[in-house]
Amino acid sequence: MTPQPPPEPRNSDGETRRVGVEIEFAGLHPHDTAEQVRERFGGEVVVVSPHRLKVEGTRWGTFTIELDTQYAHPDAEVLEARPKDDSEWERQRHQMRVEFHNRTRELIGDVVTGLVPTEIVCPPIPWDELGELDTLFTALREHGAKGTEESLLYGFGLHLNPEVPSLEVASLRDHLRAYLLLAEWLREQIDVDITREVLPHANPFPKAYALKVLAADYAPDLDTLIADYLADNPTRNRELDMTPLFAHLRPDYPHELFRNRLVKARPTFHYRLPDARLSQVGWGSTVEWNRWVEVERLAADKEALARRSAEYVARHTRSPLVRLWLRLRRWVRRS
Fold first, then answer.
1. Is residue 178's pLDDT more than 80?
2. Distance between CA 292 and CA 272 in Å, rounded?
3. pLDDT band of 112, cuts 50, 70, 90
4. Strands 125-126 and 44-49
5. How far apart are alpha carbons 59 and 44 in whole angstroms?
6. Are 237 and 200 in contact (CB under 8 A)?
7. Interior CA angle at 16 toward 122 and 128, to 5°?
8. Higher-confidence residue: 314 or 150?
9. Orientation angle between helical segments 302-316 and 207-214, nearest 10 degrees
10. H-type helices in the chain, by residue range?
11. Quick check: 193 pLDDT over 60?
């Protein structure tokens, strides 16, 4: 499958826009996964800790492969702590504490391997090269990696992080509008697995927020756009998580979410797909990128965006009696 071009294929610097990809799966250990990455894209495998590896020096940059639980990895605060004083006893005691911490975390990782997913965090990849990344997905599947559909216990996801075409507030607003209008269609296309439907990681936006953003007179500045978003979405768990982008634009914004170490500031949309169908032949990042491009196409079509926004607002602000009458009329027509 060929990646479809977005309306704005280049960023403001004239460079091909890039996409970060994150994927979770079961059935393949991080060490074996790292070898698959190296075989396809070159580079060198670096063991950071027993259950976290990097493949450095690939054609696109560094891949990170790890068990997706913080408890399987050494805590940076423990590793970076200093002895309480400069005595020999305190230095030895500190070293014993660090070694015990590392061994305990390694043991936890050994125990949960197979219960928690392996995750690959890819470096930013030019959108027109996503098809080459999908050769890795094929190799992982052939070596036993399993996606969401393999088990009711597999609540895995895929995240796309498309570099924004513009940092202008009007552009960000229009992409939000387009996503709100197409969110239901995207879920229908993905055919979300029941294991992801019941998990909170990629929740839909509240209708009240959609009505606010889709209103014809909604023309916020950056701080208002951020404040309105956080008022209705004080969480990372949204289908289109805007917190990394907002943290990049306003790192000093006074909200506790921006101080969360899991919010990684970057000039991208953070599209949290509710499914990772790695076991399905033909599925990959290109499939989901091509669906995402429909959002960007609608955002770029100002006339269609305004018309569909108005239709959405009108449909969802009708009185209960009118909505009932319209449902009855549709039912009669289908009878």
1. yes
2. 11
3. low
4. unpaired
5. 11
6. yes
7. 65
8. 314
9. 130
10. 30-41, 76-80, 88-112, 130-142, 169-190, 194-197, 207-214, 222-232, 243-249, 285-300, 302-316, 320-334
11. no
Instruction: Check if the beta carbon of residue 267 is closer than 8 Å to that of residue 167.
Output: yes
- Give pLDDT, residue 78: 59
Res 169 pLDDT > 50: yes
Task: Kindly report the pTM of this predicted structure.
Answer: 0.83
Query: What is 282-302 written as a DSSP string?
Result: T-SHHHHHHHHHHHHHHHH-H
Distant-in-sequence, close-in-space partners of 273: CB < 8 Å, separation ≥ 6 = 157, 158, 159, 160, 190, 202, 288
For residue 64, which of 74, 51, 72, 53 has the smallest C-alpha distance? 53
Residue 15 CA to residue 32 CA, distance in Å, equals 34
Residue type for position 316: H
